[in-house]
């Protein structure tokens, strides 16, 4: 089978994170980086097929390039949802084969699917047949006792044969019993060497490394070995890490925004969302870390946390919170 056409290189991606990377978070991240590839929170096929799919699929045009991450294991249902993603204009649809939570396992999707590479291949083939946008897979390096390199190679090779060209690999195995999702992000050791070896053994595939990336300097080193880097919690808790990403990772000469400029750039978006009935807190909860380790960071967080939920809270709350900080000089 021919490989699925690939989108321009995903040099830097922002990980899909439940309850975090919603459309408001992604819009803010896009202000800081024009080139980073953004991902939605994982959405289950059941939520899209049987629920209010527009609520899950809506996004701002400025978010491009942006991918929809799906959770599911039924090829027909995944194909239906992949077509929804394409119809809504998403640049990619990604299958979650990495989440280790009990709820996900009970639904027979997420990391437990690594034990069924043939089923994952069937899912990818069905999705690819339904759309023209890239279908990608996000996985771990292994699960439980199925963590040998040979088993990982079998998984990647089987799914690649179904047409998947891009694999986002969280460089930790997952324990499906005994560890919480949080512990699965911290306790199993990172094995970057395993992901690097995958790129050597599958040079025709795009291999994106995820897990433990906390700086652009670290990303630059990793990019010497693989095609892309995915940053997760650091990009959320310290979003200003993205401000220099375009210049350092994409050779984009456009000037980056300062922290205060980013706040002012966000105000028109907030105004529009408030007019639609959104509460201010829905946006400001994603920008609490903007002044991470900077003067005034505590005051910024405290003021937003205390005032953004109040009735009638509007853009003025952000401007008042800015008074706790000092002007950026970049």
How is this structure best summarized?
Keywords: Flavoprotein, FMN, NADP, Nucleotide-binding, Oxidoreductase, RNA-binding, tRNA processing, tRNA-binding. With 330 residues, this protein is α/β, with parallel strands linked by helices.
Q: Separation of termini?
A: 50 Å
What's the overall average pLDDT, rounded? 93
Q: Give a count of the beta strands, DSSP E runs of length 2 or more.
A: 8
Count of helical stretches: 16
- Output the helix-strand order: EHEHHEHEHHEHEHHEHEHHHHHH
The number of distinct structural domains comes to 2
What labels would you give this structure?
330 residues; TIM Barrel; 8-stranded parallel beta barrel; 42% helix; globular
Could you please describe the fold and organization of this structure?
The chain has 330 residues and is an alpha/beta fold. It has two domains: 12-250, Aldolase class I (TIM Barrel, Alpha-Beta Barrel), CATH 3.20.20; 259-322, Up-down Bundle (Four Helix Bundle (Hemerythrin (Met), subunit A)). It is 42% helix and 13% strand. It has helices at 23-32, 45-50, 53-57, 75-87, 102-106, 117-130, 149-161, 181-184, 192-201, 216-222, 233-237, 245-250, 259-275, 281-284, 297-307, 316-322; strands spanning 12-14, 37-44, 66-71, 92-97, 135-140, 166-170, 206-210, 228-231. Helix 6 packs parallel to helix 7 (149-161).
Give the SSE layout:
Blueprint: E1 12-14, H1 23-32, E2 37-44, H2 45-50, H3 53-57, E3 66-71, H4 75-87, E4 92-97, H5 102-106, H6 117-130, E5 135-140, H7 149-161, E6 166-170, H8 181-184, H9 192-201, E7 206-210, H10 216-222, E8 228-231, H11 233-237, H12 245-250, H13 259-275, H14 281-284, H15 297-307, H16 316-322
Parallel strand pairs: 1-2, 1-8, 2-3, 3-4, 4-5, 5-6, 6-7, 7-8
Helix pairs in contact: 4-6, 6-7, 15-16
């Amino acid at each position: 089978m021919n490989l699925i056409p690939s989108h321009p290189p995903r040099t830097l991606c922002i990980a899909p994170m439940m309850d975090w990377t919603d459309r408001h978070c992604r819009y803010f991240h896009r202000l800081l980086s024009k080139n980073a590839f953004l991902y939605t929170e994982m959405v289950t096929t059941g939520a899209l097929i049987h629920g209010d799919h527009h609520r899950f699929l809506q996004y701002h045009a400025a978010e491009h390039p942006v991918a929809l991450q799906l959770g599911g294991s039924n090829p027909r249902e995944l194909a239906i949802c992949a077509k929804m993603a394409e119809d809504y204009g998403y640049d990619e649809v990604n299958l979650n084969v990495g989440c280790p939570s009990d709820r996900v396992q009970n639904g027979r999707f997420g990391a437990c699917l690594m034990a069924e590479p043939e089923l994952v291949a069937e899912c990818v083939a069905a999705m690819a047949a339904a759309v023209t946008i890239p279908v990608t897979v996000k996985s771990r390096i292994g699960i439980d006792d199925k963590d040998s390199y040979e088993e990982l190679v079998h998984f990647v090779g089987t799914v690649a044969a179904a047409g998947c060209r891009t694999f986002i690999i969280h460089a930790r195995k997952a324990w499906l019993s005994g560890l919480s999702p949080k512990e699965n992000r911290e306790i199993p050791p990172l094995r970057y060497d395993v992901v690097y070896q995958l790129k050597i053994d599958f040079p025709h595939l795009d291999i994106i490394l995820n897990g433990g990336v906390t700086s652009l300097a670290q990303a630059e080193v990793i990019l010497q070995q693989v095609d892309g880097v995915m940053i997760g919690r650091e990009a959320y808790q310290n979003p200003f890490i993205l401000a220099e990403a375009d210049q350092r990772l994409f050779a984009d000469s456009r000037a980056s925004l300062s922290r205060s400029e980013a706040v002012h750039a966000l105000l028109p978006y907030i105004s529009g969302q408030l007019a639609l009935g959104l509460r201010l807190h829905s946006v400001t909860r994603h920008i609490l870390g903007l002044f991470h380790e900077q003067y005034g960071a505590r005051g910024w967080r405290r003021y937003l946390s205390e005032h953004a939920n109040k009735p009638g809270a509007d853009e003025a709350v952000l401007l008042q919170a800015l008074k706790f900080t000092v002007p950026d000089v970049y």
